[in-house]
Amino acid sequence: MVYDLIIIGAGPAGLTASIYASRYRIKHLVLAKDLGGAMALASAVENYPGFERISGLELAQKMLAQTQKLGAEVKWEEVISIRKNGEVFELETALGNKYQAKTLILAMGTRRRELGVPGEKEYLGKGVSYCATCDAAFFKEKIVAVIGGANAAVMSADHLSRFASKVYLIYRKKPLRAEPIWRERVEKNEKIEIIYETNVLEILGDGDKVTGVKIDRPYQEKEILGVDGVFVEIGGVPGTELAKNLGVETDDKGYIKVNSQMETNVPGVFAAGDIANVAGELQQIVVAAGEGA
Q1: Of 95-104, 193-202, 214-223, which gets the smallest average pLDDT?
Q2: Catalytic site residue 131?
Q3: Does 135 qualify as catalytic in the annotation?
């Protein structure tokens, strides 16, 4: 079977695109490694119209339910290659399955950006995490550090403060870049201590687990902060490897170039959501959904 459209990604952009494709009776398939993308990592979403407060995962589940109710075909398979064969795009997944489509929407979002310091890879899963929503409960009554200063970092610090006894929020600049409402919340939180204009140089451990972080400027006369966990929240990197193999153009930051119709330079290939360069740093669920539509 040759689909009219295959959507790669099941975040807000991909799922919204599917909703519209179903309503226009476009025969399509959604392929995704997992549900929600970056949205699923958000402990609390408070700026999506219609929901005063909802977890990112719950919002993703509601979007998926609506998508499937409209009859969309969704398969949880990671796409590992795409190639053009005449007028048809041929996709292969990690399960070895192959699919064909006349058009594509690339909505793979971003992967978490790494800090790139010694100890980060060694202690991944042993105290180093990229998902506070996933791992906060493991740090009940412990001391943790969150690295970053934008919305994701500040939201993670707020969420972690419900479990940890103390949260260091370490940011290389000043002030925090988060929305004012989130910034005010963490500044008033007695469990959260913000350390500005400071970088983490190394993540330390005893071989089995994280024991601290080494910083580049003494904080309260300390160059090493004792912590049990480190949450890296410094943004994402667009997952454009598949797109580049098709000859899709990207900008100097690696995001896919699209026009106002979300078209790439390759005919039949569209992109939407965090992977595309339309909204710049305004990577919000509502923006991704609009682009998917």
Answers
A1: 214-223
A2: yes
A3: yes
